[in-house]
Design brief:
This protein has about 160 residues and is α/β, with parallel strands linked by helices. Helix 2 packs across helix 3.
């Protein structure tokens, strides 16, 4: 099967590319990291890349807010409009197999453990901590720094900035 893979040069995208290729699929990667003209917002270039494809795997995205809140409009543009354009191209090209993958930012802060209280969901950071350049989340019960642990796919969703 011919598959268009947006964001195929990224961490997850490159692994998916390898799996698809190993399964015998013809994979076309559409990613700015490989070609600066491959912009997910460029409908015409994306549609040209999608011609003849039977599936579209959409991973192209900006993760989080990059540096600060001033990046929010570009994140929304790339992620929301970019996904809309990918869906439109799939419809225009008759591609009925469309896979969209999100990033771990849907889990918010992630998973943490307190040495005193075990698994703890971190609260939003306090202004006084941020002003003091203290960025690690604290335990809401005892105030100790929390220890990050692996996030599982069964973790509760808690999107905060995406």
């Amino acid at each position: 099967m011919k598959v268009l893979l947006t964001g195929g040069a990224g961490f997850i995208g490159s692994a998916i590319h390898d799996q698809l290729a190993a399964a015998g699929h013809d994979v076309c990667v559409f990613d700015r990291a490989l070609n600066s003209r491959n912009d997910i917002l460029d409908h015409d270039r994306l549609r040209t890349a999608a011609a003849g494809c039977e599936a579209l795997v959409h991973l192209a995205a900006k993760v989080g807010l990059e540096v600060d809140i001033l990046d929010i409009d570009d994140c929304a543009l790339q992620n929301d409009l970019g996904t809309a354009i990918a869906l439109r191209v799939a419809a225009e090209e008759g591609i009925s197999r469309f896979l969209y993958a999100s990033s771990m930012v849907v889990y918010g802060e992630g998973s943490y453990r307190c040495t005193n209280h075990g698994s703890v969901r971190p609260p939003p950071r306090q202004r006084n901590d941020l002003d003091a350049r203290r960025f690690d989340p604290r335990c809401p019960r005892c105030g100790d720094d929390l220890i990050p642990v692996l996030v599982t796919e069964s973790a509760q969703l808690d999107p905060r900035n995406s």
